[in-house]
Amino acid sequence: MRLLLAFFGLLFAGSAGAQTLTACDWEAAHPSDPYHVGPGVSSKAVDTLRAIAACEQAVKEDPAEPRFHYQLGRALVYHADRNGSDWRVGLPHLEEAAGAGHVQAQFVLGLMHQREGDACAAAKTMKRAADAGLKAARIGYSNDFLAGRLDACDDVATAEEVDAYLAAAGEQVGGWYEQMLLEVLRRDLAAVRGGAR
Q1: What is the mean pLDDT of residues 1-13?
Q2: For the purposes of burial, counting CB atoms within 10 Å of the CB of 132, is it exposed (0-12), middle (13-18) or buried (19 or more)?
Q3: Is residue 8's pLDDT more than 50?
Q4: What is the value of pTM for the model shown?
C-alpha cells in the first residue's frame, strides 16, 4: 500500500499546486470534490473502517487541513449510515471543513442539515458552495428554491441569481440526464418568474 501511495504521490505531484496524496485521500476522497487529491472513491466503494483510520491519522498529523476533516466526516457518516448508528458523529468534521471554505464540505453539510429538516441552515451552506461554483450546489440550491423550500428563510437568492446558477451549471453538466434536469429547472424558474415569486 505504501509503495502504491508513493507512486501515486509522485504522479499527482507533477501539477502546479499539487498536494501530497495520503492514505486518507486514497480511501475517502470524493471524485467530485474540487479539492480532491488522487483518483477519488465513489460512495459505495468507500471502505469506511480503513477510511476512518486513515483520515483520523491525517487529521492528527495536519489538523488545519480542511480536506482531511471533510474526508473524515464523509467516512464517519457513511459508516454510521451502513451500521444504523448516529450519522451526526461526522458533523463536527464537516462543519470544520465547511467553515474553512471547503466547498464540497459546504455542500455536504447542507445535505446533512436537510436530513435534520432544517432547510434554512441547509440553504446557507449550499448557497456558499453554489456561489463558489460547485455544480451540485448550484443545481441543488436552485431545486430547493424552485420547490419553495426556502420561502421562509433569510438571505435567499433572487430568481436572477438562480438563473445565473443554472446558466453556469449548464457549462458544467455532462450527459443527457443532467441536461434534462436543467431543462426542467429552467422551466420551473420561468414559471416562478411569471408568477413574480
Answers
A1: 43
A2: middle
A3: no
A4: 0.87
